[in-house]
Amino acid sequence: MLSKNQIKLITGLDKKKYRNKHKLFVVEGLKNIQEFLNSDFELQDLYAVEDRIQSDGKIQIISNSELRKISFLTTPNVALATFKIAEAKPIKKDGLILALDTISDPGNLGTIIRLCDWFGIRDLVCNLKTVDCYNPKVVQATMGSMTRVNITYLDLEDYLKNNNIQPVYGAFMDGIPVYSVDLENNGVLILGNEANGIHNSLGDLITTKISIPQFNNSNKTESLNVATATAILLSEFKRRTIET
Amino acid sequence: MLSKNQIKLITGLDKKKYRNKHKLFVVEGLKNIQEFLNSDFELQDLYAVEDRIQSDGKIQIISNSELRKISFLTTPNVALATFKIAEAKPIKKDGLILALDTISDPGNLGTIIRLCDWFGIRDLVCNLKTVDCYNPKVVQATMGSMTRVNITYLDLEDYLKNNNIQPVYGAFMDGIPVYSVDLENNGVLILGNEANGIHNSLGDLITTKISIPQFNNSNKTESLNVATATAILLSEFKRRTIET
User: Fold this and answer.
1) Distance between CA atoms of A56 and A79, rounded to whole angstroms?
2) Number of structural domains in chain A
């Protein structure tokens, strides 16, 4: 049976303040939990309504109604685990680094982490205003990809200034069509906020403004969703690495 | 003031049965409504808490609490309109046609409609099991793009068999990497269901199986989200049209 303190601890982990205090985050669902168990993340506690997960004897069997009490999902999925928040590994300078400027929607960040995993982006750097990757909604949306992408939160302006990484690509509505830009397989690609794009303070640090051209004649289409734009740009960067 | 019958009619329009019975659907928000007013769609009724939309004298001013009663949004946005469901126009055979096989998530369909608009896809054909494009969640997610894409619901198998459109590209996990396939700027591109992919019954009708290759070595990544995959594939098809 779950104690009141256990329930209080877990249900508080939707807040960044408590995640940072306890250095813990929540993963739900058998498949997701299995991916985290097979990774460098360290398990804290594992709760399951049935004994269907292999682990080192740490499973606490709970009832369905107990799972509903601690789950963040509309439809709880057999098991819930807490893992320890890990320190990010040092950022490598070879290969393309993806940088996010103030992405606020958890679903978008989750999709972007999945894309990093798919396209072999090792390092994702997020400015401090980007939604926390240990937010339960982000963790669920990543479908385990979080275990294979190194995510670092930092001051993006300082990082770009102090590390002399070139080139710095930025996604803009009025950039050069990405299809006709020389894309190198290293440097940084920055995607900006859902509503406001890339912050002005980063403007001088960007060496190449790129855009995804529209193929209709109306020019009325709203900008693409940031996760959709990330998908198209990462595909284009990576395509070039196999065609040269 | 809104009558009980008006409220009942509008709040029922989240159900396909009532949309089809009344031949009406709901659009919310000034910007969205303005796009539909400027399109071929015919306005039925327009409700606004302030007189901020230009129209032909059909605006009914309502209170904020009335708007909350009829809105499908968590945060209602000044105005709500009902428009008449239009018959789809005939499907053109030139240019690339996008076909959806049983897409069930309204957000995914909304994103895909926006992508069709962005990439100049005139015709989107959906099999009969795909979520209805007049669902309020889809309409909101399209951000007005629905006014510029011709959406037809039909039996996809019959359509492909009877219209002799070639080539028929299908997105599969195990297809040929899209980057190395000759892509024509006509024919049909099929994307399948979020969980189950393209239905077996369509298999024999597909001339080219394509895939988006993974660039990591783990092979553990879940398949890409269908809207994300659509973004990458449409970008790749359209890029070729400007490079040749």
Assistant:
1) 15
2) 2
Is there a domain that residue A90 lies in?
no
Beta bridge partners of A83: A25, A43
Residue A217's identity, in one-letter code, is: N
Q: How confident is the model at residue B188 (pLDDT cuts 50, 70, 90)?
A: very high
Among partner residues A214, A242, A243, which is closest to B118 by beta-carbon distance? A214
Q: How far apart are CA B32 and CA B92, in angstroms?
A: 27
Name chain A contacts of B239, Cβ cutoff 8 Å. Answer: 179, 236
Question: Please, are residues B69 and B11 in contact by the beta-carbon 8 Å criterion?
Answer: yes
pLDDT category, B242, cuts 50, 70, 90?
A: confident
- Whether B89 is covered by a domain: the verdict is no
Query: Does one domain contain both A112 and A207?
Result: yes
Contact status of A40 with chain B (Cβ, < 8 Å): no
Residues of B in contact with A179 (CB under 8 A): 239, 242-243
Cβ–Cβ of A117/B224 closer than 8 Å?
no
Q: For the domain that residue A28 is a member of, what is the CATH number?
A: 3.30.1330.30
Kindly state whether A6 is in contact with chain B, defined as any CB-CB distance less than 8 angstroms.
no
Domain coverage including residue A128? 96-243
Looking at the fold, whether A21 and A129 belong to one and the same domain comes out as no
* B78 at interface of A, judged by CB pairs closer than 8 A: no
CB contact under 8 A, A220 and B114: no
Cα Rg of chain B, angstroms: 20
Q: Taking all residues of chain A, what is their mean pLDDT, rounded to a whole number?
A: 93
DSSP B72-119: -SSS--SEEEEEEPPPPPPPPSSSEEEEESS---HHHHHHHHHHHHHT
Structure tokens given for B176: 């040929």
